[in-house]
Amino acid sequence: MQAWRVHRNGEPGEVMRLEETDRPTPGDGQVLVEVRAANVNFPDALLCRGQYQVRPPLPFTPGVEVCGVTEDGRRVLATPALPHGGFADFVVADEAALLPAPDALDDAEAAALHIGYQTGWFGLHRRARLQPGETLLVHAAAGGVGSAAVQLGRAAGAKVIGVVGGPEKAAVARGLGCDVVVDRRSEDVVAAVKEATGGRGADVVYDPVGGDAYAQSAKCVAFEGRILVVGFASGAIPTPALNHALVKNYSVVGLHWGLYNAKDPAAVRACHEELTELADQGVVKPLVSERVPMAGAADAVQRVADGASTGRIVVLPGGAR
Q1: How much is the average pLDDT of 86-107?
Q2: 271-307 residue pLDDT tens
Q3: Nearest 5°: CA angle at 84, between 79 and 89?
Q4: Where would I find the H helices in the chain?
Q5: What is the pLDDT of residues 100-135, one digit of tens each?
Q6: The pTM is what?
Q7: Is CB count within 10 Å lower at the N or C end of the chain?
Q8: Which of 127, 47, 124, 42 is nearest to 83 (CA)?
Q9: Which whole number is the average pLDDT over 237-263?
Q10: Does the structure show a pLDDT above 90 at 206?
């Protein structure tokens, strides 16, 4: 089979190599899955760089979520068992963690419904307890993670403010249904959020960026607001001033979705059922901006790493519907 492999750590465009290799062999409790679509995530770039919390042995194949077909014909969503990641013709995955792919979505869309939407759902509902009528501020609102949070926030009845970088991404955010769009390159984010909320600020902030985005969030979070720390796509991990949280009476809430897989898998399955229902109703639909052939995977991961993409880029090894 074909698989993209990383033999040394570095930038994805430099270290990912498309090779012929053997199919992975399932272990106890695992199944072989033929990959129909593999969604590109920022953690794929971190894996290539050796900066992710999981460091698989070299050589490995990146790709943390796929839509595929099992040997007995089931169409499923899976998180491949590293080092045999998703940018390959076949992966192995834990049987217990497989989720049925929603019928309402094609393979590329289904692959993109998994981690990003699960992260958004757990973040907004389990960790931040977002309520109808509250204001949700989403950083990187035109990206893969941010676009999921925008759709889920609207589904929850929130007013959504999307922060983006540049007019192209602003247009994407408006298309997603953001009530207010702020271009951080040409506007003062803090002033814009306060103006849009009558000076109150955002009740919930969804931050997959870190760095300057977190600093802005702390300045425009509302009384009893919640800042959701989802990731650090900027590369800068903020060091929150806890005295500031005390004085303004807001919460800083962490979210590591992967822990739910280990500690509460039933909650993951229940979340997937709700996401599937939302997809069936047309309330959420992953924003797949590009569908690239297997040969384009390294370039796709590099563009996501550089912040040069919108929505989701999905790699199609072949046979996708």
Answers
A1: 96
A2: 999 999 999 999 999 999 999 999 999 999 999 999 8
A3: 90
A4: 12-15, 42-49, 107-111, 115-121, 144-155, 167-176, 189-196, 212-220, 242-248, 258-263, 265-280, 297-305
A5: 999 999 999 999 999 999 999 999 999 999 999 999
A6: 0.91
A7: C
A8: 47
A9: 90
A10: yes
How far apart are alpha carbons 236 and 214 in whole angstroms?
10
Any idea which residue has 């035109």 for tokens?
142
Tokens of 126: 């389990």
Amino acid at 315: V
Strands 202-207 and 221-229: parallel
Residue 238: what pLDDT?
A: 84
How far does Cα 63 stand from its chain's mean position?
13
Please tell me the distance from the alpha carbon of residue 267 to that of residue 239, in angstroms, as a whole number: 30
Residue 151 burial by CB count (10 A; 0-12/13-18/19+): exposed, middle or buried?
buried
Q: Where are the alpha helices (DSSP H) in 61-130?
A: 107-111, 115-121
Q: For the packed helices 297-305 and 42-49, what is the interaxial angle rounded to 10 degrees?
A: 100
Q: 92 — alpha (psi -120 to 50), left (phi > 0) or beta?
A: beta
**Percentage of the chain lying above the pLDDT 90 cut:** 89
CA 53 remoteness from chain centre: 16
- For residues 103-139, b (16+ Cβ closer than 10 Å) or e, as one string? ebbbbbbbbbbbbbbbbbbbbbebbbebeeebbbbbb
